[in-house]
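INPUT
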Amino acid sequence: MYWYDLVQMAWNGLSRNRARSLMTLLGVTIGAAALVTLLAYGSGLQHNARAQFEALELYNTLRVTSRPIPFSGPGDLLYRTLEKDSLSDRPAVALTDSVVTALGQIPGVLAAYPEIQFPVRIQANGREIAGGVDAVPMAFGRLRAYQPRWGRFFLHEADTAIILSTSMAQRLGFSRPEEAVGSSVQILVAAIDWAALQRMLFGGWYLSGGELPIRIQPYRVQIRGLLDADDQAFAGFFRVLMPLGLSRRLETVTFFSTVDLLFRRAGVSGYSAVRVHLEDPRLHDSVRRRIAEMGLYVTSFREQFAELDRLFWLIDMALFVIGIIALLVATIGIANTMRMSVMERFREIGILKALGAYERDIQRIFLLESALLGLAGGLLGWLIGWGLAELIELGVNVYLARRGVPAVELFYFTPGLILFVGILTLLTGLLAGWWPARQAARVDVLVALRQV
Amino acid sequence: MDIRLRGVSKYYPMGRAVVPALRHVDLEVPSGQFVLIRGRSGSGKSTLLHLIAAMDRPTAGEIVVGPWKLDRLSVQEQARYRRHTVGIVFQHFHLIPSMSALGNVELPLLLDGWSPRERRRRAEMLLEWMGLWDRRTHRPVELSGGEQQRVAIARALALDPPLLLADEPTGNLDSQTASEILALIGRIHRESGKTVLLVTHDVQQAAPFTRRLIRLQDGEIVEDVLV
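OUTPUT
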């Protein structure tokens, strides 16, 4: 038998009971759509994290500390803080300016700079937004990720200026990006209120009025440039760049993360951390080794991302299992439909066999029917899943845009995903049809022909 | 194509009992002979035909049709034998209801891997020969009993098999139509020289076409005469 005849016969078989075939197809479509959407969502999470890492050039960045960072991956924090680390008992090398200079002179290092990060509020046009300052060295002017889309990079180390994302400028009331560049804005930072601290130290918490010894310090700065929201990924919502020299001049509390607060230890002076930016990611291992030889501790963002990748893999697997359950239910639907079809066409199978049809021909006809159901359901499911993902993404991005947050890509469809779902649904179709097709092939001619 | 049966028996299990359908049947049919097989219901006529059509296997004995030793064929070989050597006509026509007359006649050709154009040409030719040209696009339900049986005969002849087996082909037809169908089978035999085994109760109507008459009773050949 020719393949086109087999396909024709399979199609005729499915067309015979259209309602039932359509219902089965719907089941497969829903299962495949669920699988596609969930996998694309998992893929989207990973893609976004990767994009964020790349946008911030974190693959090229090492974080150097005096003490080991007591966790190496997600969920590991509590475990390591309870663990006795013998390494932490040895004398720590303070991260002074001379150490920062020495780090900067290691071959393959583009820039070494103290990690200065602090929260900030920016006011302009009668509006106020919150952000987080990242102090960056002038050497970053060479990096593509730090090239503003509008305006320019900082003029010098002490440039009294900041660089924002376009979405932040929008939230500050600048309708066009060009308007924001060169504008003067006020930034508010948290500084130590020494008078309040004195009252607290000498009069106790009660006399200090129960307030923290923190005051708000205003500064005026210019917007030097705007980074493209697409390059900044999620960071574009809050990230503010400032020249390193300016950040040092500001009177502010320079901690940002709870990790800094928890693990900054007494007895070690200098910066809490220094960031080392590599000229080339291939130099990662050699630079890392040189820093370790200086008695310092290195946390590699790249290695941390590898840990994160494992987490994503687990998330992907969980989503895959949920999706595959939906597809499994649909597969049972195909198997049931095929079984019914074999029973209904029992006599017809007998006629075909009486006329000399081979068992393999009969088996192929029914296998093709179930494969067609699987494949068509897979393709439709892919289309519906894709449409659904687009719809959800549109809704989320409309919501985010209203709040000035850059658009996100929640679902990420790769050609591999399309191929994977296509093959998977085809295989589930074949698997579901295998047993009914085998039963059809083994029908006894005489028993079938007696069924009038 | 010569047919030879040696000591063929067929028993069917019926609960704990075993019911004999054929008992030690010896039969030789030379190529091109028209044989009429008769007997009461349950005498073993259909069983004999099913065994010769390789739709069933004998419990004991040997069946040889031309070069084919039927009792030793694999399932695949049985199918090939049925396709190329035997054309079968049933009492209940056994046409596929969802297909047109043309589609039904094309079916053996389709199974044999003929191209759509070739099989269409052959099926149309056969239906024209059967006088069913204007009914070719009709489905079985739209055809009379006689027309359905003629479509079934055309289908049996599609691959031009040397052996034609007809199992009570007139059992569901009125006497006028039955007579026409028997005449048609007689004409096929006369024009093509095929070996024909016809199981029928209409001995009188079939007698003009046949040269040999076999009567079965309780699974045994009790009469085998040339007429």
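end of record. The two ends of chain B are 21 Å apart (CA to CA).
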